[in-house]
Amino acid sequence: MRRFLGRRWMSTSTVGWWDNVGPAPKDPLLSITEAFLADNHPEKINLGVGAYRDDEGKPIVLQCVRDAEARIAGTEYLESLSRQGVQAISGTGACRLFAELQRRFQPDSRIYLPVPTWSNHHNIWRDAQVPQRTFQYYNPASKGIHFAALMDDIKNAPNRSFFLLHPCAHNPTGIDPTDEQWREISYLFKVKNHFPFFDMAYQGFASGDLKKDAQAIHIFLDDGHLIGCAQSFAKTMGLYGQRVGCLSVLCVDKNQATAVKSQLQHIARAMYSNPPVHGALLVSTILGDPGLKSMWVKEVKVMSDRLMKMRNALRVNLENLGSALTWEHITNQVGMFWYSGLNPEQVDRLRNEFHIYMTHDGRISMAGVTTGNVDYLANAIHEVTKSG
Ligand code: PMP
């Protein structure tokens, strides 16, 4: 009820507009970063965030990006980009656009997500209101892929289901199918008429070779699948804050591609109108120039080699400490993450006693490991796993 009091209308209602709003659940990674920043211990280590750091623990700007910056300076307001696929707000935005396309044009479909997967996949398809199912991927006993169970789940899903696949450097497990296993998966997808949607966030981080890391996608393409693919340039070009991504949807012919592309642009138009130009211009400058491209290829290898070197160092240190446990999975897994198998209690001890921060599922970002802290980390892991 509103009453006229003097010269102003005053609301007498006691219910405010947002009284029904409680705080959203905290993002697990953001709370780790907050706790890490609040910790004053000199030897603290942040192994939560999946962003590349150099051996000094510092974020880097790739040289190919610096050179591309110099080349495009001042041109970005003049140029419009001609694009294959649809430019998206990094990998997250590419997934979100695809989920929306799926809901609009395959309204009875679901999305099958691996167990485990990047936790935001669940949020993205939830907000697009696409029902979710899961398929088995990781075997905690072997700390490797659960291939037979994965194949069973693919077989038992209704024909023409949508599956999200990580083509390389699976997050969070660091375990990828072999090429032979990808061929089997692709064959079964053909039999079942499933749709493969690839989320490519770490190209180059698994093997150090951009082409090799795209091999799973080539296997599917060779088998004649029509695929969807989300690409993020956050990690692979170190353009985290620029939010450059691409969504590609392979169609049967040009007409279909034109229609699908126009629908994706239509979806994006209502969400954010247009994506930002600057980062995309950097990417297209690098990809379009043979010199810058080969510089990029080398820089990706440097990042990936450093992560592999740290995996080796951590494993050797743990073995040298006389740990009775096996640590092969540190070096068997690839990419940015080591899915350590540490349990929540051990993760808590690492944080409380050693100031080492990681997600509760025991995922360790190898990007946070450096020559300077690997001994301290190995000792701490040895301490908390000794009696386990
Ligand atoms: N997919 C996976 C599997 C990821 O790990 C990430 C980033 N953590 C993304 C997509 C999206 O990343 P961005 O939006 O930063 O490109």
Report on this model:
- The chain is an alpha/beta fold and 388 residues long.
- It has 2 domains: 25-60 and 302-384, Aspartate Aminotransferase, domain 1, CATH 3.90.1150; 64-290, 3-Layer(aba) Sandwich (Aspartate Aminotransferase, domain 2).
- Helix content is 44%, strand content 15%.
- The protein is built from 14 helices and 15 strands.
- The strands form 5 sheets. The protein has a 7-stranded mixed β-sheet, with helices on both faces.
- A hairpin with a 2-residue loop joins strand 1 and strand 2.
- The longest helix is centred in the C-terminal third of the chain and has 31 residues, at 290-320.
- It is globular and about 65 Å long.
- The N and C termini lie far apart (64 Å).
- Bound molecules: 4'-deoxy-4'-aminopyridoxal-5'-phosphate (PMP).
- Residues 50, 90-92, 118, 166, 171, 199, 201, 232, 234, 245 line the site of 4'-deoxy-4'-aminopyridoxal-5'-phosphate (PMP).
CATH-defined architecture of the largest domain: 3-Layer(aba) Sandwich
Q: How is the main sheet built?
A: 7 strands, mixed
Termini Cα gap: 64 Å
Number of domains: 2
Note the run of SSEs as H and E. EEHEHEHEHEEEHEHEHHEEHHHHEHEEH
CATH level-3 fold name of the largest domain: Aspartate Aminotransferase, domain 2
Tally the beta strands: 15
Radius of gyration: 23 Å
Shape: globular
Provide the CATH top-level class of the largest domain.
Alpha Beta
Quaternary arrangement of the chains shown? single chain
**Mind telling me the CATH superfamily name of the largest domain?**
Type I PLP-dependent aspartate aminotransferase-like (Major domain)
Number of helices: 14
* Structural class estimated from helices and strands: alpha/beta
Strand content: 5-15%
State the helical fraction.
40-55%
Q: Give the overall average pLDDT.
A: 93
List bound small molecules: 4'-deoxy-4'-aminopyridoxal-5'-phosphate
